[in-house]
Specification:
Blueprint (H helix, E strand, L loop, with lengths): L13 H23 L5 H32 L19 H9 L11 H11 L11 H19 L2 H12 L11 H6 L1 E2 L4 E2 H16 L1
Antiparallel strand pairs: 1-2
Length: 210
């Protein structure tokens, strides 16, 4: 049986993200079972996969921000990791948020992953642990963001980006040239849906920076 939960990490945000993906995989398996039994159409299944992917990716984005801020104040809360060394002393999460995101701003853009790396270089020595994420995995995260945009925006630009940078000329049946069908497509050995592959990479990246 395929396992989706990566070993527990060292900060309080990991369990929440891991639990989210476990629930998403449970729903995904139920969707697949309904399609197999003829109780759900392929189109409805594609739409469900898109919704599940949006939920998981949004959780990952929130995780990035929460962990970044947490690591800034962790040394003063007894939870420091040796390789995450802030360049400045911040004791309050509220202050950390204002310093990192900016006064009066409600959110910051953390992706493409280079944006996270840029902030990490400013606030942590060597940018660690964010700079420890291998480029291949960073590229998968950026690809996941393009899929997210194609699902959420339905614009010509986002669809063109999906086709040119994610599908990138791979010979696929028409159904898999749209986000939902693409995510439901099965590849690799052992075979897995692309949803599973992306989810596994997002979790692996989260584990590295936890």
């Amino acid at each position: 049986m395929r396992r989706y939960v990566v070993a527990a990490a060292t900060n309080p945000h990991w369990d929440s993200l891991s639990s989210r993906f476990t629930r998403l995989h449970g729903t995904r398996r139920r969707v697949d079972a309904l399609v197999l039994s003829g109780q759900m159409s392929r189109l409805a299944a594609d739409q469900m996969y898109e919704a599940l992917f949006l939920s998981g990716f949004t959780a990952f984005e929130v995780f990035l921000e929460e962990v970044f801020l947490y690591l800034l104040v962790a040394p003063h809360r007894g939870h420091a990791r040796a390789d995450a060394i802030p360049r400045l002393v911040i004791r309050s999460l509220m202050v950390a948020r204002e310093v990192v995101i900016g006064p009066g701003r409600k959110y910051a853009d953390w992706l493409p992953f280079e944006r996270t790396l840029g902030r990490a270089e400013l606030f942590f020595r060597g940018g660690r642990p964010f700079s420890d994420v291998p480029k291949a995995q960073r590229d998968v995260v950026d690809s996941a963001q393009l899929i997210r945009h194609a699902i959420a925006h339905h614009s010509r630009h986002s669809e063109a980006q999906f086709l040119s940078k994610v599908v990138a000329g791979i010979p696929l049946p028409p159904r898999e040239q749209r986000p939902g069908g693409f995510l439901r497509g099965v590849t690799g050995t052992p075979p897995a849906t692309r949803f599973e592959t992306y989810a596994a990479t997002l979790q692996a990246v989260a584990k590295i920076i936890s």
